[in-house]
Amino acid sequence: MAKIIKHKPSPGEPLSFLKEFTQARIAIGATGTSIPTTQSLAFKLAHAHARDAVYSVMDTELLADELMQFNLPVLHLHSQAISREQYLQRPDLGRLLDELSVNRLADQIENKGIVLILADGLSATAINQNAVELLKLLIPKLIAAKVKLAPLCLVVQGRVAIGDGIAAELGASLSVILIGERPGLSAADSMGAYLTYAPKPGLRDDSRNCISNIRPEGLPVTVAADKLFYLIQEALSRKISGVALKDNEGLLSDK
């Protein structure tokens, strides 16, 4: 059995040991009636990183090249938001495909399998850094399970619900969209994975399962890939998703 080492907090910062487990701003100390200069500068830097992440650009060319390793077609799509500013001001447009994208999907052969989608969301940085690493672990599992895969989709200026329209156009039975999450002051590279069974336009968020905070300092891609594969198998087997589908992996069977 591993020896438990009792932590001895430093004088004046009794909560400093918690920094081992979180990037949240705790035990920052004090200088007089204010916070230390280093902490003040770190806060401003984190805020700048968050703003940069919102306006970051998805590297579609690099991602497309990296996705070629999976031997699947890659479709480049765009929402109806024509600029980043419009995307931020009109969330509804980020949920809808533009005409060119609809036509591009209409040219594809109907696929009853799973469609995997990469969208920039509110942090393209998260997709640039984490999406392919997760797919490297997930796609081999799906292929081994003999799951049919639709073309991979790269979506610029996309929001979560845009996956419903994409899946409906392709005739996919299930969609998984990897999307950059809203940056915070402790994480600007967080990616979310949203799974929807029988996707179609007009579904609400309670129809989806979400795995959040996928990044090196959050939920590792190894764990996220395993959890996502489990949920995909359960959704296809039970033909449900969202609040009706619980993540019971690792729990004792009630049979």
Overview of this protein structure:
It holds the Pfam family EutC. This protein has 255 residues and is an alpha/beta fold. The chain has one domain: 3-Layer(aba) Sandwich (Rossmann fold), CATH 3.40.50.11240. It is built from seven helices and six strands; from the N terminus they run ααβααβαβαβββα. Strands 1-3-2-4-5-6 form a six-stranded mixed beta sheet, with helices on both faces. Helix 5 packs across helix 7.
Features:
globular; Rossmann fold; alpha/beta; 6-stranded mixed beta sheet; cobalamin; disordered N terminus; EC 4.3.1.7; 255 residues; 7 helices; 15% strand
Give the overall shape, derived from the CA principal axes. globular
Mean pLDDT: 88
In the CATH hierarchy, what is the architecture at level 2? 3-Layer(aba) Sandwich
Query: Biggest sheet: strands, sense, closure?
Result: 6 strands, mixed
- Which structural class is indicated by helix and strand composition? alpha/beta
Q: Share of helix among residues?
A: 25-40%
User: What's the CATH C level?
Assistant: Alpha Beta
Spell out the helices and strands N to C: HHEHHEHEHEEEH
**What gap, in angstroms, lies between the N and C termini?**
33 Å
Please compute the radius of gyration using only Cα atoms: 21 Å
Task: Tell how many strands the DSSP assignment holds.
Answer: 6
> Unreliable stretches, pLDDT < 50, 5 or more residues?
1-5
Domain count: the total is 1
**Name of the CATH superfamily:** Ethanolamine ammonia-lyase light chain (EutC)
Subunit structure: The basic unit is a heterodimer which dimerizes to form tetramers. The heterotetramers trimerize; 6 large subunits form a core ring with 6 small subunits projecting outwards.
EC number: 4.3.1.7
GO biological process, one term: amino acid metabolic process
Binding site for adenosylcob(III)alamin: 160, 181, 210
